Amino acid sequence: MKLFLGIDFGTSGARLIAIDNDRNICWSGSTSYSAQTASPKAVQWSMALFKLLGEMPIDLKNRATRIALDGTSGTVLLCDDRGQPLAEPLMYNDDQAQSVLETVKSIAPVGDATISATSSLAKLYWYAQQPYFAAGRYLLHQADWLAWLLHGRLGYSDYHNALKLGYDPVNLEYPQWLRAIPEVGLLPQVLAPGEVVGQILPAIAAQYQINPECLICVGTTDSIAAFAAAGANQPGQAVTSLGSTLVLKLLSNQPVQNASQGVYSHRWGNLWLAGGASNTGGAVLRQFFSDAELHDLSQQIDPQIISELDYYPLLKPGERFPINDSHLLPRLEPRPGRDQDFLLGMLTGMARIEAQGYQILQELGADRLTQVYTAGGGAQNSTWQTIRQNLMGVTIIPAIHQEAAYGAALLALNGGFGDL
User: Fold this and answer.
1) How far apart are CA 318 and CA 326, in angstroms?
2) Contacting residues for 69 by C-beta, under 8 A, at least 6 apart
3) What pLDDT, on a 0 to 100 scale, did the predictor assign at position 36?
4) What CA–CA distances, in Å, run from 385 to 82, 261, 298, 393, 398?
5) d(CA 377, CA 282)
6) Hey, which of 94, 163, 179, 375 would disulfide with 90, CB 3.0 to 4.6 Å?
7) Which of 228, 222, 262, 264 is nearest to 243 (CA)?
8) What is the DSSP secondary structure assignment for residue 319, as one 8-state letter?
9) At what angle do helices 41-55 and 142-151 cross, to 10 degrees?
10) Are 7 and 147 in contact (CB under 8 A)?
């Protein structure tokens, strides 16, 4: 029996899920990066990758047929000609490139997805100002670099990760304005998510006792893998990922885009995933409450009550969607005397951000929202779910599968996302 492996690299750890031809989960494992916090991030990722492969039972690894990985969108590394990172990766939410955003605006079309301080292209221009840039040969996304560790062929990406680098998913090419920049030689070759790059390296196959004929695919982003896992497959259906941040994806017959509002669309076979990512989410909640406190306080909240507090919960200034403003300030005052009222205000504020996000997508031309699947840790909070459902007026249900690694495994199984 053939097995298909999906490996998800999130903000704090990685997970591997192996499925068979019938989409049944045959094995799963996870690991945290926390034990190696003193190491460079790329080292932490690679240690997590090979720890998971090492822990998987040998009899299952012998049946591994294809592997696909996903990583955080917009996390990039500048690498030398041997694939070695020249500096720490720039993470998905790193906005140091605010200093070069005017340069990006001067070359990119109005409304392009690259016009953001957190875009891959902006980070390339930030790297270009650093003293080590001359040694750079490849700009790779997190999933690109980790897959390279397995197949050994530098310079490959997928059109999901490459969207914020400037890749055109409609015409399936780098646009002319991007091909004209001096740094074009560092851009990866872009393939369709799930397309095979090559076989697993013989040395890796031997060391970890993996089927030497196992094929390695180009991957996708973590939020798109989570969408695939959730079960949405009809226009109008959407997936909200309630993790450290809040990510919305609405399946649509047509693409929509508006960089000023942080809106972009990914290709999904013959359909499109319209969406955006907000900086609000679980990370803000955990700044004030532990998981146990969140659970207990949520039980004390009447979910039919919509808080009148005008909160916009953020960890620090800066928002991507539904407002794209790197200077937007958090709003978490006044704080009520009771913790449950404070939590209700934050949950309501986040629900309003989600509702506003879906409203904007529909106003821009995406299909009418009919149903929302929920993935991520926040999906377990029934109080929050009721608040969200009351604000949006559509049915909200848990994702069929919560783990993005399951979506990556589906990508390995199907060789793409168009027929899920």
Assistant:
1) 4
2) 6, 7, 8, 9, 143, 146, 147, 219, 408
3) 52
4) 47, 25, 11, 12, 9
5) 8
6) 94
7) 222
8) B
9) 50
10) no
Burial class for 188, CB neighbours closer than 10 Å (0-12, 13-18, 19+): buried
Look up the pTM and report it. 0.89
Side chain identity at residue 276, one-letter code? G
Q: What is the pLDDT of residues 294-351, one digit of tens each?
A: 999 999 999 998 899 999 999 999 998 999 888 999 999 999 999 999 999 999 999 9
Q: Are 410 and 10 in contact (CB under 8 A)?
A: no
Using CA atoms, how far apart are residues 138 and 135, in angstroms rounded to an integer?
10
Instruction: For residue 277, give the nearest of 254, 252, 251, 250 by alpha carbon.
Output: 250
Distances in Å between the alpha carbon of 201 and those of 19, 64, 216, 323?
A: 22, 14, 9, 44
The H or E element containing residue 3 is: strand 3-9
State in Å, rounded, how far the first CA of the chain is from the last one. Answer: 21
**Which amino acid, 396?**
I
Q: Which residue has the tokens 């591997």?
A: 16
Token pair in block for residue 231: 């079960």
User: What's the per-residue H, E or C state across 135-170?
Assistant: HCCEEEEHHHHHHHHHHCCCCEEECCHHHHHCCECC
Query: pLDDT tens digits for 211-244?
Result: 999 999 999 999 899 999 999 999 999 999 888 8
Query: Residue type at 280?
Result: T
* Whole-angstrom distance, CA of residue 52 vs CA of residue 406: 15
pLDDT digits (tens, 9 = 90+) for 121-180: 999 999 999 999 999 999 999 999 999 999 999 999 999 999 999 999 999 999 999 999
Which of 273, 274, 281 is CA-nearest to residue 245? Answer: 281
Half-sphere exposure of 199 (CA within 13 A, CB side): 10
Which CA distances in Å does 125 have to 74, 90, 119, 136, 182? Answer: 14, 12, 10, 12, 11
Give strand pairing partners of 277.
247
